[in-house]
Sequence to fold (329 residues):
Amino acid sequence: MFTKKRIAFVLPIFNEATNILPLYEELVAVTSRITSGYDFEFIFVDDGSSDHSLSTLLELRAKDDRATVLSFSRNFGHQLAVTAGLDAAEADAVIIMDTDLQDPPRVAIELIERWELGADVVYAQRRSRKDTFFKRFTAHSFYWALARLASIEIPRNTGDFRLLDRKVVEELRKYREHDRFLRGLVSHVGFQQEAVLFDRDARFSGSTGYPLKKMVRFALDGIFGFSTVPLQLISRFGALTSAVAALGVVYVLAQRLLAPATTVPGWAFVMVSVFFIGGVQMLMLGVLGNYVGRIYVESQNRPLYTVSVTARGQLASAPKGAEHVLVAS
Fold:
């Protein structure tokens, strides 16, 4: 008996009320072209939205039982929303996609085709992007730094837009760190990974959920989560500072011995040196503190997220009230 393959779309939502229906319509249009041999599920994870995203999702859910809705009890962050979707997915393959329509649903067809040819991970790699100069510059700088610091190779110009085979999803579920950088974790687990190039569209509507502060935090998660180079740089910078200090001592002694009359007492050099060394020490303490803070968070072993609303299953057979089940995770 022929069994259809099941593919789940994991769709993190944060204040995307105006984008939900256009995204859903595009997903339906795309998946309707490849219904033969596949069943689809759309897993929407509401990350504590403050607009009417959740009510829009539940209305959508009432019309299409392929839509699953999970809602966090508060905002936990994009990466944890994706993690919740991966935890909930019961499919042969999972496609992770942002919900502002910058990740074109039409690319999913190419991802599926490459998966059917044997790839375990198919990541969508940006060939072009319709972003501001600042966004492009910071993204380029981040990937440049990550390529030199990370202990694993993380493809450039990629986001979380990708297809994961079920065995990759099951492996990722074993990784439960709080400060998550999923594209790094996907590279870390290995398996056969291939790229599909695409042109990233402009945001459909609304404002980004990743302002500068979150972008910086996300970049640090990528660097500190997959590299100990910052710790190594502390000792290297300390050695360099010591060498400069030693040269300064040699210079002062030589001046005292060879040309004592030219020695001019003053405080400028001393004060600059003190502030310089103090700044370096505070910087290095900050690096150490970042790693120690992450150790502290992991040692608490708290749940990654809490789900307050779950709407899933066949609508026709679901008991009354089953669309609003309160669960703690």
User: Anything to note?
Assistant: The radius of gyration is 26 Å.
